[in-house]
Write a structure and sequence with these properties.
- The chain has four helices and no strands.
- The protein has 122 residues and is mainly α.
- The protein has a single domain, classed as Membrane associated eicosanoid/glutathione metabolism-like domain (Four Helix Bundle (Hemerythrin (Met), subunit A), Up-down Bundle), CATH 1.20.120.550.
- The chain is globular.
Length: 122
Amino acid sequence: MIVLILTVCVLYFVQLMLPIFLSRSERSAAGNRAARAAHNLRESLPVFFVLAVLSEIGDVESNLVWAQGWLLTRVAFLFVYTLGINLKPVDEFGRQAQPFRSLLWLISIVCLVGMAFNIGVS
């Protein structure tokens, strides 16, 4: 779990730097999406860290799979959001839906709930 926590720290650092690198080029839209993806990660990162540390302290080995699932979905979320994969046309309210990104976000939340459940059960 320690290696996974450190890997998540690297992901966070990459997500912090990505908008800066993308905004310097002609891809300002991708830079804006990368910044929003980083903001989204900052919202769930504290929950992940708390659950991962509690899993390590409580020796809840089954949470390693949930944590890996969370990390993989967050990496996929970053790519889908930043690259604008599966963007739908802008609706009348000015919003642009991205259903696949929403599905990845939901899966990452399910992983966090799974981690919390395992900690509560053990």
